[in-house]
Design a protein that fits this description.
Layout lengths: L1 H26 L5 E7 L7 H16 L8 E7 L4 H13 L4 E5 L1 H10 L5 E6 L18 E5 L5 H12 L5 E6 L5 H12 L6 E6 L3 H11 L5 E5 L3 H5 L1 H10 L3 E4 L11 E5 L1 H16 L15 E6 H6 L6 H6 L2 E3 L1
Parallel strand pairs: 1-2, 1-3, 3-4, 4-5, 6-7, 6-8, 8-9, 9-10, 11-12
Antiparallel strand pairs: 10-11
Length: about 325
């Protein structure tokens, strides 16, 4: 017991010692900086925003910024509701933050309209040039820079992996966000790749949960169907519904983010979202120290992950090839 208490005391002492220099700086008159964060597609009770912010906080602390000492972080979640996202963007801008971090293209669009001079860092935006947010990846210009989450070539990869885990499929529905300029690029890539995988593509667009359910039920009436969910605020805000519907109607599905198979979806292939937020910390730091966003080149993803849910595969009657399992970064059993 004494040893346990001693270790606990030393742990607390070490944490306090790490915070003392920061506390001293704040007490000496250093201005406390404010970061505002807007998530477009996640709900208030969703754990994913907390995990992403934890990665950002950890990275910032290593650079000398501690939330509650010389930094304040405010965040809002939009739940995939455009009106709510716009309202939150206005509320956060009114706080006069030093930096705004926008997660998703809709969140970035909402912030861009109201925060004309505030530095903005986006995370998880597929094609910021085509979307008109920045001039170029190398020289974004203006008050915006950030981190993309997709390459258009991933459209072909999703088809390849879906066909590998469910070789019997001949029909693939692709769930797309009609408002996303990046959707056209993915569509071109997937249409070019589809013949080599012997699948017929159907592109579907939905905005409300009832509409999503109707479309998936209708698509599932014919056999040998699979579905691709490339992401977007509508999909992320309704991911529990999506994974339940695909399971209920026997559809093999591949998603863009790991939080889908962790919620009983079949599989995912895409960027590591937590890693993007960890990488965003140095950009926040540089801007807080005076750098201009327009001078910081937009960073592309470097870490991708393949996640497979074996329990869901078994429920769908799929035998996952050992070669595919061997390539997986995470297997959920």
């Amino acid at each position: 017991m004494l040893d346990t208490r001693r270790r606990h005391f030393i742990t607390l002492l070490g944490g306090a010692a790490a915070a003392w220099p920061l506390a001293a700086r704040a007490q000496q008159g250093e201005r406390v900086r404010r970061i505002a964060i807007l998530f477009g597609g996640f709900a208030d009770d969703d754990p994913e925003p907390l995990a992403r912010m934890a990665a950002l906080r950890q990275g910032l602390q290593q650079l000398g910024w501690a939330d509650g000492i010389n930094l304040r972080i405010e965040y809002r979640t939009g739940g995939g509701d455009p009106d709510r996202v716009r309202a939150h963007a206005s509320d956060l801008t009114a706080l006069a933050p030093d930096v705004i971090v926008a997660n998703s293209a809709p969140a970035l669009a909402a912030v861009q309209k109201v925060a004309h001079a505030t530095p903005i860092i986006f995370v998880n935006v597929a094609d910021p040039v085509a979307s008109g947010f920045i001039a170029s990846l190398a020289h974004p210009g203006g008050n915006i820079t950030g981190f993309t989450n997709f390459e258009q070539s991933m459209g072909s990869k999703w088809l390849e992996l879906l066909k590998e885990i469910a070789p019997g499929i001949t029909r693939v529905a692709v769930f797309q966000d009609a408002a996303s300029p990046a959707a056209a690029g993915f569509r071109r890539v997937m249409e070019a790749a589809a013949p080599s995988f012997h699948v017929q593509l159907t592109f579907i667009f939905a905005h409300e949960p009832a509409e999503i359910e109707r479309i998936i039920v209708e698509f599932s009436r014919e056999a040998r169907g699979g579905i691709v969910f490339p992401g977007g605020t509508i999909a992320s805000g309704n991911r529990k519904l999506l994974t339940q519907l695909t399971a209920r109607h026997g559809l093999a599905a591949i998603y863009a983010f790991a939080y889908y198979p962790r919620m009983d979806g079949l599989m995912s292939y895409g960027v590591d979202g937590i890693d993007l937020w960890r990488r965003a910390a140095p950009y926040v730091d540089r801007i807080l120290r005076g750098a201009k966003p327009g001078d910081l080149p937009v960073q592309q993803p470097t870490k991708f992950e393949l996640v497979i849910n074996l329990k869901t595969a078994k429920a769908l009657g799929l035998d996952v090839p050992p070669t595919l399992l061997a390539r997986a970064d995470e297997v959920i059993e």
